[in-house]
Amino acid sequence: MHTEANCLSWFTDNETNYALLFDGENEAPYVKDAFHRALIRGETEAVNPAREGTKACFHQRLEIAPGGSAVLRLRLGRNAEQNFGPAFDALVEQRRSEADAFYASLLPEAAHAEEKRVLRQALAGMLWTKQFYFFDLDQWLEEHGAHPFFPITATRQVPNAGWMHMINRDIISMPDKWEYPWYATWDLAFHTLPLAMVDVDFAKQQLQLMLHELYMHPSGQMPAYEWNFGDVNPPVHAWAVLVVYSMDKEQKGRGDLTWLKNAFQKLLLNFTWWVNREDPTGRNVFQGGFLGLDNIGLFDRSKPLPTGGHLEQADGTGWMALYSQNMLEIALELAAEEPAYEDMALKFLEHFLFIASAMDRLGDRPDEMWDVEDGFFYDLLRLPDGQGIRLKVRSMVGLLPLCAVTVISKETFARFPRLWERAQFRFDKYPELLKTIHDPRLEGVEGRHMSAVLDEGKLRRMLHRLLDEAEFLSPHGIRALSRAHLEAPYRFEVHGETYEVKYLPGESDSGMFGGNSNWRGPVWFPVNTLILRALLQYYSYYGDAFTIQYPTGSGRVPTLFEIAQDLAHRLIRIFLPDADGRRPVFGAQDPFQRDPHWKDHLLFYEYFHGEDGRGLGASHQTGWTGLVAWLIQLRYGLKKENILADGLRAAVVAREP
Length: 657
Known about the structure:
By secondary structure, this protein is mostly helical. The chain is 39% helix and 10% strand. 43% of the residues are buried. Residues 1-6 have low confidence and may be disordered.
C-alpha cells in the first residue's frame, strides 16, 4: 500500500510483535502495534518512514473548544489539487441522494421512519463487514511443520492439519470486522438473506464460496471457522440457497437454474458427509457436537462426555430433517427443467421420513427424543451399555425440530405424478414411518401437502411452550432456554459431580467455550428467523382454521400468521424507541439513549437479553443480527391472503414497492 495524500499518514505491516509478546525476535521492523506506540508513546520510529505497508492510518491533531466541533475531509487520490472544492461537495451530495433513493426503494412509504432507520443501518453494517480474507493452509501447515506431504516436525497438535487443500482468497462477509476478522459458515448462510436485498449476486457468490473446492473438504464437509475448520456447523446452507434463489428469481423475473444446480451438486456431497459421519449408529439420529449453540447443554457437546457414550441430538436430527426438506424443494425446482432430478426429490423425501420418524419411534419409549409427558424434544444421552436417558433441558435444542417443515403445492405434485405414485408406494409399504409425524398425504389449504416432524397434536403442545411468557416467549423474541429453568435448574450428577443448566437471560456464568457465549436464555436472531419461517409454513398449510391461545397475556386466540407477525414485531422493536424514546437495544446506557450524537446510531449485537432486550456479546457483530432488515421487509411484504392463495415462498420474497 502506498499513498501520495497530503495529510499525515502512518504505515506499518500486520505482523506480530514477537519481541514484546514472547521476548523473541521480530521478523519485520514494522509490526502491528506501531500506531499505538507512535500515538501513545511518541515512538514515531515505530512506523515506516517510507510510508508503505499493509496497514495504514491517518493522524491529525485538533484542538477544539468546549461545545465546539470540527470537520475533517479525507479523500483517497493522487492529485491533491483536485481533492476538494465545489466539485467535491456536489459529488458527496449526489452520492447521499443516490443512497437515500436506494434504501427508500426497499420499504413502502407506509413504513415507520424508525423502521427505515433500522433497516438502512443494518444493511450498511452488512456491507461494512465485507472484507478480503487470505489464508493459504498449504503454506501455513508447511511453516508449522505439520504438512502431510513433508516430514512432520511439529511438537504439538496443529489445528486444521487435515485441511491442507484450502486456499481462501476472497471477499467474504464476516460476522464482525475487527482486528482479527474470520468467517463462520452458518453465520454466513444467514448473512446472505439481508445481503440479497442489496446485492443478490454477491449473496449467491457467498453461498457458492463455501461449496468451492478450495473451501469445502474433499470429504464433503464445509469449513466451520479459522481456529477449527473441522468443527461442525448447523447445515443451513441448503435453506439459504433456496431463499436466495427465490429472492433472485423475484428480483430478476427468472431463476438462475445453473447456479442452483451447481449448489445442489455440492450440497449433495455435504449431505452425504453428514449421513456418513454424524449418524454413526445408522439409526437416522444425528450428533454433530455443539452445533453452534455453544453452552446450551449440560456438557460441552464438542468433547467426550463425562459419562462415556454419546449424545443423540434433537437439534442435529432436526437440522437434518430440515436439510432433507430443503434438498427436496431444490430437486423439485430443478426437475421442472430436467426430469432426472425427480429421482433426487424422492431420495430426499425418503431421507426426511426416516429421520423424522426416528425422533419418535412407535410406542412410548424412554430412549427416544420425544417426551410424551412433557410434549417436548430432548437430547438423548446414550450410555456405553446402550441405555438411553433424556436430558430434560427445555431449550432451543428441542424447538428446532419444529422448524423442520416444508409445504408443497398441489400443482407441484400434479406436475410430477410418477413421483407421487412412488411416494405412495413407500407410504403403503412402511405405514409405521407416518404414525408419529405429520402424514404428508393429508391435504391442507388449496390442496397443499406438508412435510413436517410435528403432527397437529405435537405442534399444539410445542406452541403452548413456545408462546408461554413463563417459558420461551420474551417481549423481544424467543429465548434460547426456557425461563422455567430460573426457578427449576436442570441438574445431572456424574461420578459425584453435579452438572447444571439454569436460565441466564444475560451474560453467561459458564466457562464453557471460554465463557464468551450464552445460549442459556438470551434471544438470538438466526434461530428466531427459522421459527418465524416455520410458523408461516404451518399457516400456509392450515390457514385460518388453526388458532391457538397464548398461555399468558391478552387471551387472544390468534392464527399462526398473526403469531408470526407478532414474533417479527418483538424482534424488530429491540431497535425501535419506546413511548419514552428509549431503545431496548441500549439498555441502561444513558449516553446511547439520550445523547443526540449517539441515540440514533444503532449497534447490532451478537444476541439480546431475554427479559429487557438489551444488546449483549459483540456490539459490532452486525452479522446475522442484520437479519432485522430482512424481517422488516418481510413484515411489510407478507399478506395473509397471498399466502393462502399462492403459498409461502412467493410471499416471503415479495417486495412491496
